[in-house]
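Posting for a labmate who doesn't have an account.
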Amino acid sequence: MLDKNGIAKRIAKEIKDGYYVNLGIGIPTLVANFIPQGINVVLQSENGLLGMGPFPFEGEEDADLINAGKQTITTLPGSSIFDSAMSFGMIRSQKIDLTILGAMEVSENGDIANWKIPGKMVKGMGGAMDLVASAKNIIVAMQHVNKAGESKLLPKCSLPLTGVNCIRKVVTELAVLDILPEGGFRLVERAPGVSVDYIKQATAGKLFANDNAPEMILD
């Protein structure tokens, strides 16, 4: 199985030269550490930053430079800092080529729930609703199962939805999966050492899986 860095490293392979990419809170922020060499990418943070770099080394943090998850970050030459109004203007006008989000649940129809667990305190939805409504392309980075071993890839989300029918690709510690237009998860790649049968058992939603699905290549 992959750890969180492994998930981020696999997602980084989906980024193309020239992309403007928004990184959500959680696992997506780690993608900044794995941008492929020779790829010119501009990372956007919804709190008002273009040109986000990798995480700083210990002792080199600047408390005034943070991402949307309030983690300290670095900036690259040519970066730009601005207010939230301009940031969400970029998002809503579809200037972002790829959005990478975390999720608590994803359904086989491409619905996503990633902002609230009923009964638990929450500050608000943040920018997630704008991102899923406006993004050209969304990849979800998430754990395949919860702490109880229950699948988070479901026939239907049980948590309050952030967006409907908007997700087309999911990367977990077990697999890369596409969500088909007609519904259902399609196994594209499996994590090194993980069997197709194990992925089937861990996926509650409809899964289309070839027994010869290839392993991910991370390097």
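Reply:
Got it, the structure tokens are right above this. Helices lie at 4-12, 84-92, 128-134, 196-202.
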